[in-house]
Amino acid sequence: MSWRPQYRSSKFRNVYGKVASREHCFDGIPITKNVHDNHFCAVNARFLAIVTESAGGGSFLVIPLEQTGRIEPNYPKVCGHQGNVLDIKWNPFIENIIASCSEDTSVRIWEIPEGGLKRNMTEAILELYGHSRRVGLVEWHPTTNNILFSAGYDYKVLIWNLDIGEPVKMIDCHTDVILCMSFNTDGSLLATTCKDKKLRVVEPRSGRVLQEASCKNHRVNRVVFLGSTKRLLTTGVSRWNTRQIALWDQQEDLSMPLIEEEIDGLSGLLFPFYDADTHMLYLAGKGDGNIRYYEIGSEKPYLSYLMEFRSPAPQKGLGVMPKHGLDVSACEVFRFYKLVTLKGLIEPISMIVPRRSETYQEDIYPMTPGMEPALTPDEWLSGVNRDPILMSLKEGYKKTSKIVFKAPVREKKSVVVNGIDLLENVPPRTENELLRMFFRQQDEIRRLKDELSQKDIRIRQLQLELKNLRNSPKNN
Q: Taking every annotated instance into account, which residue ranges of this chain make up the domain DUF1899 (predicted)?
């Protein structure tokens, strides 16, 4: 019996990636060389933010999207952190508010002025201290205004109410460093991956672990909720060190994934991106130049390969444009901003559905979450869940948000959550931190030994000079 390929009818089977021309890229940017597994890039309909390489602290650039081309070396930066910046995220409801976290254990909220920065910004409108170690991740709640999640190397996830500028909840169920956080559609559930090789689904307000998977065959790195399909997708590494993805049913006990699929034998981390409007999944590898894309279905085989965008330049990270910032006249359904470290370049990559008609295509642009929050912080903290407020990209996608961020006045020095002062209760050091301390101490010992040997040599020289002076004929 001859093998015949199975034909699938899909409106997205011919989606292709289109790289912007050089004059529409952002050039001359000193992209950070930090090896932390994050994107180091955040974008919305007005600004592009990129973490940069800097000495004596952490900084990032904020560039208006229309200001393409070469960026001057002395372009103003946001540079208030005392340590390297590890993650940045734009507020989904207020386009000029951005959150950043750093190795200096702080989370900071910045307000970018209209038209971008004219000089270096060193003062944040809000500084949040609650973690006892560096903070690696920040995530905004998808439906509630002014609720921010941060994950630190102290194994804790803190939930911040920015209306009062303090942490209101703490999720303390992880036993190692948290690698990734992802919300479901209404923000009632939080999925996390951890260095202890476990996938968890958590109720964020109570901190209770609803489901947990010990991934022995599939070592998880990244997780993403697949919209309202009650499913999760993870990327990770198999027991044979090949990159793979796994699909999980949230309604099951997560003991076994629905499917596991090997991607390739490369070593770079796989970043998953899911578009709930088109049910498309994009996979981009760190250090690769390729972006694979799939269509997610409700029935077997669940995951259908569509095509692959190829590029010779490796990517360090990728920023993703929100739906309301896309060009619907060009049938653009997704847009990446690719960080090319070797060239100091940011390349926009548009994923386009080829259509002959230039009219608005309603079948590829359904109602999508807009820029209006569905809940206030108090409502969400009291237990209310609500789906995001939807908008049409046909008429409303150019509207700007009218919400204004007001920073609270704070003078408290202690941070108490669940009866625990977070700044006083420091967890035990990890093995990597102990090794770093050991090597720093060894370097300090070598430095002191070198100084002592130099002083010994100098003392011997002075003794020899003194002896020569005493034995000279003039002294006799």
A: 5-69
Which residues make beta-bridge pairs with 178? Answer: 194
Per-residue pLDDT at 3: 42
**Average pLDDT, integer, range 182-198:** 92
Tokens read off for 16: 């292709």
Are 210 and 203 contacting, i.e. CB atoms less than 8 angstroms apart? yes
DSSP strand E in 163-287: where? 166-171, 178-183, 190-194, 198-203, 208-214, 218-225, 231-238, 243-249, 259-264, 270-275, 280-285
pTM score, two decimals? 0.82
Higher pLDDT, 6 or 292: 292
Helices (H), 27-104: none
Cα 188 to Cα 304: distance, rounded to the nearest angstrom: 29
Domain ranges in the chain are 16-391, 428-468
Structurally, at CATH architecture level, domain 16-391 sits in: 7 Propeller (2.130)
Q: Map tokens 């490369």 to a residue.
A: 266
For residue 368, give the 3-state DSSP assignment. strand
Rounded CA separation 271/286 (Å): 7
Position 86 scores a pLDDT of: 94
Question: Higher-confidence residue: 405 or 308?
Answer: 308
Q: How far is CA 83 from the centre of its chain?
A: 17
Q: What share of the chain is helix, strand, coil (3-state, %, to 5)?
A: 10, 40, 50
Instruction: Round to whole Å and give the CA distance between 341 and 39.
Output: 12
Mean pLDDT check: name the lowest of 20-24, 70-74, 440-444. Answer: 440-444
State the Cα–Cα distance between residues 460 and 255, nearest whole angstrom: 72
Q: Output Rg (C-alpha) for the chain, integer angstroms.
A: 26
**Gap between the Cα atoms of 180 and 264, Å rounded:** 22
Task: For residues 394 and 362, give the distance between their C-alpha atoms in angstroms, rounded to a whole number.
Answer: 8
- Hey, CA dihedral for 37, 17, 266, 197, is it positive or negative? positive
Give residue 415's pLDDT band: very low, low, confident or very high (50, 70, 90).
low
Mean pLDDT of 71-88: 91
Q: How far is CA 313 from the centre of its chain?
A: 21
